[in-house]
Amino acid sequence: MREDRVVEVWAWRGGDRYGPGSGYRITSDLVLTAAHVIVVEDPTPQRPYYDIATSTDIRIRRRSSPELSTGVVVWRGADANLDLALLRVDDPAWRDEQLAPVRWGRTTCQSPGVACAATGFPEVTVLPDQRREREQLSGHLSPTSGEKEGQYHVQVSNAPVSPAVGDSAWCGMSGAALFSADVLIGVIVIDHKGFDGSRLLAVRVNAAFEDPDFLSIVAAGGSCGDLFRARDAKDGVPALESAELTTLFAAPRTSRRPRSPATLLTAHTSAVRWFHRREPKIVELLDWLGSAEPVDVRLVVGPGGHGKTRLARELVHRAVRAGWIAGLVKAQSPAELDPDVLARLTSCEVPLLLVVDYAETRPDVVRVLLERIKDDEPPPVRLLLLARSPGQWWQSLWSSCELLQELLALDDIEVVDQLPDDTEQRSEAFNQALADLSDALPSVRDMVSAHWTAADWKEMAAQVDVPNLSGHRYRSILHVHLAALVGLLRRRPTTENSDASSHEEYLLLRERHYWSRSAAESGLQLNEQTLTNAVTVATLLGADTVEEALACLSRVHGLKDQSDDRLMTVDHWLQTLYPAPGGGLWGALEPDRLGEYLVAEQLARHPALLNSALAAASGPQLHRALHVLARAGAEHPAAVSLLRDQVLGQPARLVPAALAVCVETEEPAALLAAVQDALEQAADHADVLSAIVEEFPAVPSELVEVGEQITRMEAEVYSRLVRAGQHRYLPRLARAHQKRSEQLFQLGRLDEARREAAEATQAFRELAAPGSGREGEA
Q: pLDDT tens digits, residue range 364-384?
């Protein structure tokens, strides 16, 4: 809840008397309040509010202003169960300001104790000049209480003492917006008699969502999040989120003006409408949602840029419209999953769609969600996993989860459709993107110009020829959209000359203009290369805390000699440059393929930048960096070389992290080779080998091929350490030989398996030998 959006509402009640109430600005000039606040006279038991005429004189006051502004009623609930109203400020002196869309919600689970809060202007806060101070109410509610009357019963934890006679101490609080977990779920309307001010009643806002007039007014004001708005929809009708589960999902990105041209290519912006040729896939997934199964899981894989995330967001959009609670899970690790939210999953009463993007990097999150999902009764639950490939992570996850094995086979994997070689279909996608991007470009902050209008963009779009789209890269819908965007941008009159050899390079040129302009607005006078270094490090490593951010920035070329104050300014600039979609401070340059291109190109030119950044990286940052480099290596061989150089240069630190990523990535060969080379290089350095083996990751037994290679390396390290006189590692050596023997038998390499079994037997005998001093160590 934004406290600066809370307002006082006053309605004329005849003579010189005004009735007080509270309200909340859902847009710059649209206020939500209780309907009984704006009637011409006080309601009575004999004459309820919905039988009383609307006041003809409405006044509204923001907390920062001593003045009252005029307003008019534009909508009002029609009966006792809909004590809600919408006001529009019509005062010429009212300053119009851009506000983020409100997130609307409802309770969806049965478990009690849902935390909630509201801010209003009750009687107890009245000042001598009749203005009122704000009062912040906090409490909790039970989703099932008041359900039949469309109300919430709010148990207040900080209730004022009611007066002995007269009105409730809460008089004037009516109309205050009730929030839970940042979503607006109700409006306070009355003090529940018999509870001495400790319980208030609130109207559930989801009741208003059944009124088309309410929805049309709210939609016209833009009070909804971009996540739930279709690019080609005729309106922006808001959607209801789950009050209890909303923190499970990445929050909708609500910026109405994209920050830079590259932003238009991201899935969350959806500047290009849904490609109708892919409609059959959405229909198939909608059928999956509607199947009779109480719980079901799907894995969809495909290279970056082929539209997996856009597919998932389109499905989320349509599921929400059909009454589901749906979204992209934001937790990057099980530790980030709120235990209270997980506990409520089992009591959810609404169909639920959970989407886990980049599932290969967070299988443990998927595992925890599957453990919490009930699979024996409705409503249905669907879990959609998105990944670049079904690598080792999928085998490990599937083998370790009984429910997953019951729901789908190990090879029951769907591959997202590439664009076919049919150039007609690719040309159609290009022209559609051209039209939509020309509509969107005038709203991009970095492209605003008094001399370049929307009509100009449209005219230029008509002059852009369809390029040759027959190449392999144009199987990716992202590359088709990228070609359309660059085609438009190159048409824009500019004083600069660009000899960019690729679409990615040209778009990065435009992004650098955005970086320079936004840095100047933040008070940063840094050269272009320093800004580029900072964005590269942010895209590669990310940062979850201020400590991580400052540690990395202090090692970036161009920032090493800067004060902490200046580094904090850079940190804030990066946070606003590309906001993080979920937790964390820094978002990455998107779409992913563009971010990977930036990382690969910059580090190829300035490899020392990676040395400095990784030296200060935390464990999670190292893990992220290796994943980004591994993904970038699919199209940029230089990234593979950089990966290898880093692992060889910091074996004690990077070998364990590299092995962990091997288990998750679709292409572990390059990382495994780098690890092997690092171990060979450190063969005579017992201290390095000791540090490495202490951090060797546990490899799931079902990952036989990768596991065999990792166990072989582990056995080699233990053998070298034992030969160097560190006999405490002999028990581990014996177990490593034994484990590798089992793995080789599974792979059918029987001769090798017997040799490993013999090595294991010899090691165990040495341990058990009398007088060895190591009896029982194994």
A: 999 999 998 876 677 999 999
Longest dimension (CA), the chain: 106
pLDDT bracket for residue 123 (50, 70, 90) = confident
Superfamily of domain 3-89 in CATH is: Trypsin-like serine proteases (2.40.10.10)
Q: What's the CA gap between 736 and 653, in Å, rounded?
A: 22
Average pLDDT for the chain:
85
Task: Give the whole-angstrom CA distance, residue 188 versus residue 196.
Answer: 16
| C-alpha 11: how far from chain center | 42
- CB-based contact 698:680 (threshold 8 Å): no
Tell me the C-alpha distance between 243 and 220, whole Å: 24
85 contacts 34 by C-beta, under 8 angstroms: yes
489-490-491-494 Cα dihedral, nearest 10 degrees: 90
Residues composing the chain: 778
Q: Which fold has domain 276-415?
A: Rossmann fold (3.40.50)
> Does residue 678 carry a pLDDT above 60?
yes
Query: Which tokens hold the place of 693?
Result: 């083996």
In this predicted structure, what is the pLDDT of residue 162? 57
The burial of 16, by beta-carbon neighbours within 10 Å (0-12 exposed, 13-18 middle, 19 or more buried), is given as: exposed
Tell me, rounded to whole angstroms, the distance of Cα 697 from its chain centroid. Answer: 28
CB 503 within 8 A of CB 635: no
Report which DSSP code applies to 700.
P
Token pair of 14, please? 């005849």
Q: What is the pTM of this model?
A: 0.82
Name the one residue in this structure whose structure tokens are 């040759």: 468
Distance CA 316, CA 340 (A): 23
Q: d(Cα 235, Cα 230) in Å, to the nearest integer?
A: 9
The answer on pLDDT for 330 being more than 80 is yes
404 touches 293 (CB < 8 A):
no
Would you call 234 exposed, middle or buried from its count of C-beta atoms within 10 A (0-12, 13-18, 19+)?
exposed
Query: Is the Cβ–Cβ distance between 733 and 696 less than 8 Å?
Result: no
- Model confidence pLDDT, tens digit, residues 160-176: 665 544 567 788 899 99
Residue in the block written with tokens 């206020």: 31
Q: Which amino acid is at 49?
A: Y
Using the Cα atoms of residue 359, residue 363, residue 368 and residue 370 in order, give the sign of their dihedral.
positive
* CA atoms of 115 and 106, how far apart (whole Å): 13
| ∠ CA 347-352-355, rounded to 5° | 130
CATH code for residues 104-212: 2.40.10.10
Q: Do 549 and 543 meet the contact criterion of CB atoms below 8 Å apart?
A: yes
Q: List strand residue ranges (DSSP E) for 175-233, in order.
A: 177-180, 183-191, 199-204
Lowest mean pLDDT among 282-286, 456-460, 613-617: 613-617
